[in-house]
Structures are given as C-alpha cells and as structure tokens.
Design brief:
198 residues; mainly alpha; Rna Polymerase Sigma Factor, Chain: A; Arc Repressor Mutant, subunit A; 2 domains; 68% helix; 0% strand; globular
Length: 198
C-alpha cells in the first residue's frame, strides 16, 4: 500500500501515536489534514492573510510540542481549534495594542486570495459571467463586514458557519456556555444583516 493510500485509512489517534514515535511522515499527514481548517479559523478572526499564516504556523509549532501531552479527552480537531483560536486572539490583541487596523478594499484584486474559501457555501454551476461577478462582489462585501464584527461574535460565527462545528464544540473551544455561543452567533448574524441591509 502506498503512503497516500495508507494515510487515508489512518485516523488521528494513530497518526498522533506515530508522531510521538518520531514519524515525520505522520506529522506531515496530520498537518496536511488540518492546515487549511486552521488557516480559515485564524483568517476569520484576524481578517488578514499574513497574520493568519503566521498564526497557523505558530499554532502548529505549539501543537507539535504539546502533542506528547495530548490525552485524547476531546477530539484532536477540537483541541487543535482551541489552540488556533487562542493564538489568533493573542495576535488580534497584539495588533490592537499597536494600533493595527484591518483594511479591506472593495476594489482589491481577489486572485489568489484565500478569503473566498470562507464564504462559498452554495455553489451554483449555472451562474452567468455577470452573475458570477455579482456573487464575487457580494462575497467580498460579506467578508469585509465580518471582519468588523466584535471579535467574540466573529469567532463564534466563523466556527459555526465556516467550520460547521456544533454549538457544543464551539462552547468547548471558546470556554463558554452553549447559550452564550448561540447568543453571540445570533448577535453576529443580526449585525451582519443590518450592515448589509438585508
């Protein structure tokens, strides 16, 4: 069996055991499985590509170092998301203390921009070119407005709508009650509707 085929059959628990036995290929597989998800979460919180990339890299360094202590009380993905969220929050606070502002232009070239991965929930294969352009503009407007939401509400919304996590998983990640998660998401959605005149 080739390595790629073998990797598809190996679950997280087995990969972690292999990583802890100095199997670098297993670490590459684990990273490959979760890097995009980690980046999307970091980007959703920070709204800036370079910061999200930095946070993702830092988070995986922390994960690698902490992996021998991972007890498996929760899913690896939940544990990993928590580390990414915490790293992104730290970076957000660091940026805020230094007066950094996230600026997103409506006219910026979106080619190669990973931001589009956040909001394509309902692909339509029958769009005309004009409809596709309008959809991209609408998508960009939503992404811009999401970055303006209060951080706690934005985090909850991204984890629910982008990562499709359950309310229970989000409450574990953000260390708050399920009711709090639901109210943060409701507030985020309401503010987005207001900002987008929906």
């Amino acid at each position: 069996m080739s390595k790629p085929e073998e990797a598809e059959l190996v679950n997280d628990k087995e990969l972690i055991a292999r990583v802890n036995n100095d199997d670098t290929y297993a670490w590459e597989q684990l990273m490959g499985k979760y890097t995009t998800k980690a980046y999307q979460i970091a980007y959703g919180i920070l709204g800036q590509k370079e910061d999200a990339e930095e946070v993702t890299q830092d988070a995986f360094v922390r994960i690698y170092r902490a992996l021998p202590k991972f007890r498996g009380d929760s899913e690896f993905s939940t544990w990993m998301y928590r580390i990414v969220v915490n790293q992104a929050r730290n970076k957000y606070r660091w940026n805020k203390r230094r007066g950094s502002q996230v600026n997103v232009s409506m006219h910026r070239d979106r080619s190669g921009d990973d931001q589009k991965d956040l909001f394509i929930d309902l692909p339509d294969k029958h769009k005309t070119p004009d409809e596709e352009i309008a959809f991209k503009e609408w998508e960009g407007e939503i992404a811009r407005e999401v970055t303006k939401l209060p951080p706690v509400n934005r985090e909850a919304l991204i984890l629910r709508n982008v990562k499709n996590l359950s309310y229970e998983q989000i409450s574990q990640l953000l260390d708050c009650k399920v009711g709090t998660v639901k109210s943060r998401i409701a507030r985020a959605r309401e503010e987005l509707r207001r900002r987008l005149n929906m």
